[in-house]
Specification:
Blueprint (H helix, E strand, L loop, with lengths): L2 E4 L2 E7 L1 H19 L4 E7 L3 H10 L5 E12 L2 E10 L9 E9 L3 H12 L4 E9 L12 E5 L5 E2 L15 E4 L3
Parallel strand pairs: 3-4, 3-6, 6-7, 7-8
Antiparallel strand pairs: 1-2, 2-10, 4-5, 9-10
Length: about 180
Amino acid sequence: MKRIKLWDKEFEISLLNEDIQLAIKTMAEKMKTDLEGKETLFICILNGAFMFAAELMKELELTDAEISFLKLASYSGINSTGEIKELIGINEVITGRTVVILEDIVDTGYTIKGVIEQVLAHGAKEVKIATMLFKPDALKVEINLDYVGIVIPNDFIVGFGLDYDRRGRNFKDIYTLVDK
């Protein structure tokens, strides 16, 4: 589909699944090199990063790796609330481990900065950030992104795990909001 309608908004296709898959494979190759032999815990930020995490984990062949999930909420409609609510917390032992945070998209950076602080407070040996999508024009805080899949403009998008008011996560491609 070239266009979709979710609730009251129209979106048009902007990234094909093939391009997303290629970016994930490229990221996985770099991770294999960087993380081999390290006791690694991947933390997928729900809900948005679930598709990214699933595809990435299929590409990684690391024997010392585990995955867990952290559920956060910070959006209302198409806008960030600026507040991060933790809905499901971290239950795994982090002390002394390499932690890779898997995020669907980094825009302002507030969410990922908060997660980094939380993981470091739990005693992580090192923290790396992997984001499927990055909006550099929206970034408000200084953070280091270790693995970036695709750099995109500061537009509102849905698909491949990202949503507009709970809809649109199921699309394999990514769509951009047509008019605000």
